[in-house]
What we know:
alpha/beta, 10 strands
Amino acid sequence: MAFLEISKIYKSFGRTDVLKGIDFSLEKGEVLAMIGSSGSGKTTLLRCINFLERPDKGTFMIDGKEIFNAEDKQYNDKQIREKRLHFGMVFQSFNLFPQYTVLKNVSLAPELMRINGSDRKLTREEKQAILSEIDENSRRLLATVGLSDKVNNYPCELSGGQQQRVAIARALAMEPDILCFDEPTSALDPELTGEVLRVIRELKDSDRTMIVVTHEMNFARSVADKVIFMADGVIEEMGTPDEVFGDPKSNKTKAFLEKSLENPMG
Length: 266
């Protein structure tokens, strides 16, 4: 049984059908790359997976357990927030809090969840123990992404690549089952792209399950275990990197890859 199973996902905005029945699965520790032209539906799909948008139809399962079924209309905001914890999201525009240090950006969400979200009133000693544990873990994650020397800096004092690495550490701090990236290098200058891609490669080596929407074809081919090419709201082609990049079957896939090779940053 697959670790993540996405079944029959549909999403419309008004009269516009954006996702038209999406099915795929992912094994634990695998990296899925989603590629396709702008407007193909890949970012909407990622937002649905993260519950930033609610699918009109379909189901999600993680490790054999159903966590979402669109036919159940009774999910409240608290339940959606809980389901979102299965997924960590790294946005293309970083979305860091400018008023907080790097360390606080990483530690804030775990603090709010474990202290403010506690079902009972915590003692002062319990709060201090939790804060100490979160601080230690946040520093460890920042070391993982190569930013141990930036814990007291503010986002405005960092390069774009460094900010994106903070965003990755922040997503990891919530201990998600699956880490998702929406064009993680699109807001970066070419010389800063490599440092972010290197961190993602290192996460793959540590057996992280990841979904990456990307325009970096060479990265997708070298890192992904599975590639999805989306077009017009459907999965046009799916397979291993060698299958999709080396021997595409769909004419739409072939045309997209030819264009991407002509314009690698497009």
